[in-house]
Structures are given as C-alpha cells and as structure tokens.
Design goal:
single chain; mainly alpha; elongated; membrane; transmembrane; transmembrane helix
Length: 168
C-alpha cells in the first residue's frame, strides 16, 4: 500500500508544518474526489479489474482523503489526530508490507497452512472491513472508530495479499 504510506506521510507533514495547501483538502471538491476514488476502487475490486493490492491501496488512500475533508471541519484546528492518524496508517502499512507481504513468498508450508486456516476462520472478511471503514468515516462522534476500522482493513489486506502471493 505504497500510495497510502506516501499519502499518510505527506498529510502528516503538511499538518505538522501548518501548510497553507491544507485548505484545499478541506473543500467539498476534495471530499467528492475522495468519494469518487473510493467508489472506483470498490468497483474495480468487485469486478476483478485490478489486483487486490491496487484496489485496497486506492480504497485506503481515498478513505484518508475523505476522512480529512469530512472530519477537519468538525474538530479543533490543532487536533493531534490529524497528524498522528495518517502517520499511524503509514507506519502500520509499512511494517505489514516489509515484515509480512514482502516475505510471504518465503513462508514455509506450515506457515502458509496457518495463514489459510486463519483466513478461513476469521469472521471479518474484506467486505466487512470495507463496511467498517465506511461506517468509521461517517460516525464522527467516536474519533477512534475510523483508525480501528483502518487497522482491521490493513490487517485484512495483509492476509489477503500474503495468500495471493503464496498462491502464485
């Protein structure tokens, strides 16, 4: 999820330096663009037009744009979540990519079997993760809901992509 990692780092940097271009991300146009990217990513994934790794990255990045555009007017100017949440998403995605996804082709047979078992037994599939992220975006009163939803989405993404890498 390289685009999410870069987007999160850039957004955190812009927020930390109080960049004047942040006003652009608070506009209804930015919200509309994020929603359009989110819908396009979901459709591309549902119709199997792009690999999982691409539509997941597009959905997560679009969610970050929607989150900032939708939530920023609801909270104080100096709310620390606008710096820490994008940084957290970038860090979590980086760790999952470097530690698991990039090494998944080297998993031994037993590890691959455990991952398949976990994938089969987990009650939180990708569609549930997507719905959880969308609900987390809509419910602004619970500011920790969106980062929790994104955490589940990133973990689910990691499992899915690792299994894709093992199967190929």
């Amino acid at each position: 999820m390289i685009v999410l990692i870069l987007s999160g780092l850039i957004l955190a940097l812009l927020v930390q330096t109080h960049n004047p271009y942040l006003v652009i991300l608070e506009t209804p146009e930015a919200l509309g663009l994020g929603l359009a990217l989110m819908v396009a990513s979901l459709l591309a994934g549902y119709l199997k037009k792009v690999p999982n790794i691409i539509w997941h990255d597009g959905f997560a990045t679009a969610g970050l744009i929607v989150w900032y555009a939708y939530w920023k007017p609801e909270f104080n100017e100096d709310a620390p979540m606008f710096f820490f949440f994008p940084l957290y998403f970038a860090l979590l995605s980086s760790i999952m990519t470097l530690a698991l996804i990039n090494k998944s082709q080297y998993f031994d047979t037993e590890s691959a079997q455990h991952l398949r078992y976990l994938n089969k037994m987990i009650r939180f599939d990708m569609s549930a993760a997507v719905i959880f992220v969308i609900l987390g975006l809509l419910i602004t009163k619970h500011y920790a809901l969106y980062p929790m939803a994104m955490t589940f989405f990133i973990i689910r993404h990691t499992i899915t992509v690792c299994l894709d890498n093992i199967e190929t």
